[in-house]
């Protein structure tokens, strides 16, 4: 099993008050989860279309997607001035967003060559605009997820019932395209991250008395195959 590096140099500082944050996971550095995150092999090429403001938010979940999935890529949008990008990977392009024109994603979409799954990453309006304006999304087939369980993400107010965080949406999409194990592994990491972020927001630390012991147990579970 391989692991991602702790502090990639190309990520911007996290915008948060108080203690310095890890640029990889957005948590306070002493609670950093990056070293425990597994690197998950997938056929689907996941490309995040991340708004520039979203990159610096500590509650962003797209950065966890990039750290968990082999081959995942973050493309920043909303920068001032031209921002040249390399060509997208080869494959049928799907853009994941519940637009009126979107059809429901299904396991049949995994047949043939690997799909390129474009995922707008930002607030609701930023994501909607990315589908219409981002050059990488032009000509991509819009897809949405089938109805499922409610979101387990409580760090932001949902724009509407049924809304999911970026990581949850990607995990469910890959559950359809790659199998239930990938979805499970992603959601295990997500649940640990949400737990830590919630405790930090409420108390400034994990738990009174034994944060190191709790962190160690969580990380050991994530590293199991």
From TrEMBL:
It comes from Sorangium cellulosum. Its EC number is 2.5.1.25. Belongs to the TDD superfamily. DTWD2 family. SMART domains: DTW. One of its GO terms (biological process) is tRNA processing. GO terms for molecular function: tRNA-uridine aminocarboxypropyltransferase activity. It is an enzyme of class 2 (transferase). This is tRNA-uridine aminocarboxypropyltransferase. It holds the Pfam family DTW. Transmembrane segments: none annotated. Residues 18-202 form the DTW domain. It comes from the Bacteria. Keywords: S-adenosyl-L-methionine, Transferase, tRNA processing.
């Amino acid at each position: 099993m391989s692991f991602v590096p702790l502090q990639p140099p190309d990520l911007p500082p996290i915008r948060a008050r108080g203690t310095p944050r890890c640029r990889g996971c957005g948590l306070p550095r002493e609670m950093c989860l990056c070293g425990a995150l597994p690197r998950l092999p997938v056929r689907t090429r996941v490309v995040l279309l991340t708004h520039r403001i979203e990159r610096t938010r500590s509650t962003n979940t797209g950065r966890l997607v990039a750290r968990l999935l082999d081959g995942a890529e973050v493309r920043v949008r909303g920068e001032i001035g031209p921002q040249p990008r390399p060509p997208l990977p080869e494959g049928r392009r799907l853009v994941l967003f519940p637009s009126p024109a979107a059809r429901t994603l299904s396991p049949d979409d995994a047949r043939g060559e690997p799909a390129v799954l474009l995922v707008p990453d930002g607030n609701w309006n930023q994501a909607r605009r990315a589908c219409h304006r981002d050059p990488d999304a032009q000509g991509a087939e819009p897809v949405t997820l089938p109805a499922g369980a409610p979101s387990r993400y409580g760090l932001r107010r949902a724009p509407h019932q049924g809304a999911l965080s970026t990581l949850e949406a990607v995990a469910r999409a890959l559950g359809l395209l790659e199998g239930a194990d990938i979805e499970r592994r992603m959601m295990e990491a997500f649940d640990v991250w949400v737990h830590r972020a919630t405790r930090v927001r409420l108390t400034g630390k994990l738990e009174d008395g034994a944060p190191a012991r709790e962190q160690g147990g969580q990380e050991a579970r994530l590293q199991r195959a």
